Amino acid sequence: MFGIALAIVFCIFCSVQAHFPDDPKPCKYGDGECIMQFVNTLFSERFSEEDPGLNLMQLDPLKVDKMVISQGEGESPVSITLTFTDNLLYGIKDQRIVKVKGFGKDLTTKHELKIVSKTFSLVGPYNIQGKVLILPISGTGISNMTMANVKIIVSFSGNPLEKDGETYLDVTNLKFSMKPESTHYQFSNLFNGDKALGDNMNVFLNENAEEIYKETASAIDRSFSQMYLGLVKGVFAKVPYAKLFAEE
Questions:
Q1: Helix (H) or strand (E) holding 87
Q2: Structural domains in the chain?
Q3: For the chain, what percentages of helix, strand and coil (3-state, to nearest 5) are there?
């Protein structure tokens, strides 16, 4: 069900020459086409390794320690609290940036990445309580939520941060939005292990997947925005902003 909007796909090329001297040279300020091609190349080749030098964890599968989707505002037909713990997010290696805006010399301007991905799957322990389209739902077990053909937009702005005589980008206001073509749900051990009720609920969820996702999209985007703000801030805090780009 969930996707990832890796603003950190741009951040992968932070000080890349220091780590991978044979790679193409960094791009000029604001050269969106160059940034897109450069990062897609690095991303497809090095997604599976941690890089402490860049403050990056392993990206595929990505470890998700905890995420809470809380939905139930107003008259929404979906009112749930869905908690994921110790999950793995698969599919990041197949995503690609298709458009880049920003990343000029002015650190305060809006930066935006448009990303597409074949599939994203979030797999691991879950707990859910609430109702879905008037039906009660509860359970604790293992879930697999998969989205197919996902379109993602990541945008963020920032402020210059002076540290040790260098200027870093302090990332703020990260926003993340996803639009999947389709969504599939599988929850084990619903209703305290009642197989008949659990099987029927999984069928019901998938028959109504489009409407359910529409109702929960804002809550999902908020949760991912919060999670990835920390990751992106950590990467940009590692390398001075000017060192991300080629000298003009």
A1: strand 78-90
A2: 8-244 (3.15.10.30)
A3: 30, 45, 25
